[in-house]
Amino acid sequence: MLEFYANQGIVLETTCPHTPQQNGVVERKHRHLLETARALRFEANLPIKFWGECILTATYLINRLPSEVIGNKTPFEILYNQKPNYDFLKVFGCLVYYRNTDTKGDKFEVRGRPGVFVGYPRGTKGYKIYDAKHGKIVVSRDVKFIEKIFPFASVKENNEEEIFKFPKNLEDFDEPSNQNSSPMEETNEPTQEKSPTAQEEGNEDERSPSQSPPSSNQNVSNEDVDGPDNEEQSQQFEQNGTNENFEDMGIDNMVGLESAGAGSNNAESSAPTRESRNKSQPKHLMDFIVQLPRSVDHARPTTNNESSTVHPLANFISYEKFSNSHKAYMMAIDSNHEPKYFAQAVKNEHWRQAMKDEIQALEENGTWSLEELPKGKRTIDSKWVYKIKYKPNGEIERYKARLVAKGYTQMEGIDYHETFAPVAKLVTVRTLLAIATKRSWLIHQLDVNNAFLHGDLDEEIYMKVPEGFSKEDDTRVCKLKKSLYGLKQASRNWYKKFTLALIEIGFKQTQMDHSLFIYKDGDVCVTALIYVDDVIIAGNNIEKIQKTKNYLHAKFSIKDLGVLKYFLGIEVTRTRKGLVLTQRKYILDILDDCGLQGCRPSNFPMEQGLKLDKDNGEPKIDESQYRRLIGRLLYLQATQPDVAYAVNILSHFVSDPRQVHMDTATRVLRYLKATPGQGILLPYDGGTNLRSKKQSVVSRSSAEAEYRAMATTVSEILWMRWLLNELDVKQNGPTPLFCDNQAARHIANNPVFHERTKHVEMDCYFVRERVESQEIQPMNIHTKLQIADLFTKALGAQQFRSLLDKLGVLNLHAPT
Hints:
alpha+beta, 3 domains, Integrase catalytic domain-containing protein, SH3_retrovirus, nucleic acid binding
């Protein structure tokens, strides 16, 4: 820490021993925390072992309450420059029912389990629930709150033993004699001001040193409170914090238990037997860590950077190697979140204004006209999509609300005809960036304002009035005159218009990738790569680049985002060695949605020698959850080829996933937890075209299988040679094709092994033709040095790391 202070220009001053008066500001804040925590505990009548959760919740609430010291603003608003959201705040210590996900396919299993609300978790969008029956703290999104009932309030206050000795089950509690005795229900509701999803403040888990630790028999150990199960981690946060699937069970059945007297006697008599058992944590919970209330061990020195999470993300990701401006940009895209629903956005002033601006822009553009719906015609619906746009320095440029038509309700032949429109291949993106970096070109990024609205619409389409702008007495609908985001034909219409605009100023469309345009005039070379409404412009002449920007702005209205930093969810960082492509934020978002930010990391994405079957007798799991996870991991291969094989194998089971498949996918996430900042270095010998594909035919020998793979690779090599030729990168000789199978190389070089290969398709023999034409040169490589093995098998530790280094994979965010 001393080195950190010195680097940051911080002077560290310490107080004398036993002189708290020298640190009055901190001591006063400790008092504030303890007073709030005591109020929470006494109101809910929680046992003292939950003092840690009371402190955390008090900190969470104080950071979101106005203070006169800072001009009646909240600490949250000062830190994040936005008002906190109060919609999801609930009464601490009240009775809740959270969704039971451990049904194991039993449709008659209870849908909700009772528990006690004990706070707000860090890094997860949900609520912390203490399940007394199962003796664990879980995190769940789908929770129904009974804010007038406090399960611990039934314990008699004059019986100190009952107050500090928490029963094993909720059955040991009496029903509250007066359910309306809580003064909480008389308090006013907080102001309903809505902002983007609230962020967690740092250091909220710090305990006050003046808090006396509870006795040893009052601590909550890992044996008494298990970590939350993976199925109970929230993936999506709804502001009302409830789940409509929960049935209304009635207050009389919420406790649903036997009389208190019998329950207390049973618990008291069975306590010695239960305490004498050898307790161990369930194996399925070994990967999950929960924040537990614990006492401070005064026998050992404490540090300020201690965390209640055993494996915090700070141990695996660092920002020390980046410039201050780049740090600001990364922190900005991390700290701001966009709402997902209209009901969330409409409560925030920024998003309300953004929706008004979008409607105004659409009307000024003549996108529609309000008309009565003709007989025999049908309408399509629309929805709002929200996005925060950033400046190059990380500051928020504007809040963008985009109106998107629900094109999936269109009917082919009536509402649309042709739909195809090319987008930039990731191979082309990596290749262009590698060439631009090698040649020290300028690389800039543009964003076209309302790109799809520039396309002309030929079909007759009617759309309902957008949500939030309809009137009850107005039955008119929107007759679309121009393309709108979400329509089947919108991307095609926009692409045609953008192509014509670039051709008018001398750009030529490449044949290898129709989304890539090149301008050449002597030594001047400028390229434009389009992916829907995002454009990358790279070239060696700043004047031509600026002229192209000005022309596109006059034609379509664009935003100049400056130097390329963030494209399609890929973070681009320029170093002395070249460009590094990472998906750090994308990985952190996946871990956050899956509730695995505190999981134990793994050194490898898949265990070597692991065999997965489709039907192994294990129970089925939620298919939609598994498919969504695999789909997100598939896109991650754009910058992290080290997970390609594992994701490829897991994608075989999306139609019928089992628990073992989800466990294996969880291991991939645990590996990503250890390497969130890992990416590909460009330029490098390789790393631009990365892919593997399962062969659709059965090969009779390994030589035949390798030869078929060579044929597929030759196709990619030829395409790459032609693309590089269009980018004015000349090929002076044949492209080496490394193969570790001697027989396959012989077949490619000579017409040998006729008896063993006469059944192979004729198109495979074009490999030999390309070898004879000096375009391809098969070369030998040792099996342990074959980089392609990363995509075809699970490797051991040494070979795995060695091949990643050869491929150009590095981790800029690795802690030093």
